[in-house]
Amino acid sequence: MQVSVFMDVEDPINDLADDAARDVAEVFTKSGVRGSFCLTGEKCRTLLARGRQDVLDAYLPHCLGLHTNTHSYHPTTMELLADCNYEEGCQRALATETKGFDAFVAAFEKKPSFWGGAGNTWSCEIPWALSQLGIEAYSYALTATSETGVHKFNGCVALPQAISIGEDQWAAGYDLAETVLDYAAHFVGPWLGIFVGHPTRFRYQQFWDYGFANGVTPPTPQLADEQDEAVYQASLERLGSFLSDLKTQFKVVGVDEFLEQELAFREPTLQEREFFREQTAANLRSAKGWPIHRPDLDIENIVAKTLALEDTMRVLRTDS
Fold this sequence. Notes:
By secondary structure, the chain is α/β, with parallel strands linked by helices. The protein has helices at residues 17-31, 41-49, 53-59, 77-81, 86-108, 125-133, 167-172, 176-186, 199-203, 229-249, 255-259, 270-287, 300-307; strands spanning 2-9, 36-39, 63-66, 115-116, 137-139, 151-153, 156-159, 163-164, 191-195, 251-252, 265-266, 314-316.
């Protein structure tokens, strides 16, 4: 089994978020683990504007993906695509993600290896837009054919997130890292995605985007409260220890390394189709509750558009 470790790099507001992003990348590098990091277009633009080449350089050894153009800025992906038909939605999705793509390329001089959904916001036009940009996969997939199965949807490889460790758990020193390792040891499948947090939440006590909740765009940036320095350093140390342990037990790869293999896909079974219809609809409806979304967001059109594309679904073969 192969394992990929994800983190999301997205805070363009708080002063120490850039340093935290660099510090976390260096923890991965020193641990000998190649991370799969999702960076927003806005974060790329911010790092370039601030002249933070040190941060950009810290990420170069790792697998890098685009984490939407602006993440929690309104309209979110669902807010943008909820009220249009599929054809118009494809053009809207391509227009906004092209901006993020261009910022990413300006920062790293290469295209993203994959795309990671922001928070809980997505729509079925995104895979089409990604195919136009030459991005072949999306992570944190809300589409599903089984509990943890890699699949294809609307032309893109879909990578589900199986398990995660939150920043508060790193800070508190819980044994969750041990629990995750045990889960991974008993996982059945060719690939497992593990999410280990956001650099900014190692450094700050709130998410950077708490001011954008309920569809609000704050007139001025709302800064988060800093985490205690000793807690921050301890969290980084625990992350490093976890990564070192993970490396000794599993083959840890970047998403790009996984995608470079000859992946073969097959037609879904009737049971997998049924699972897709039920679980994907449930995932999308649950995503509506992301605190950032406007309260009156109606995503039933997104559910209908997504289920209408059921025939594009393919399931990763595991028998070859």
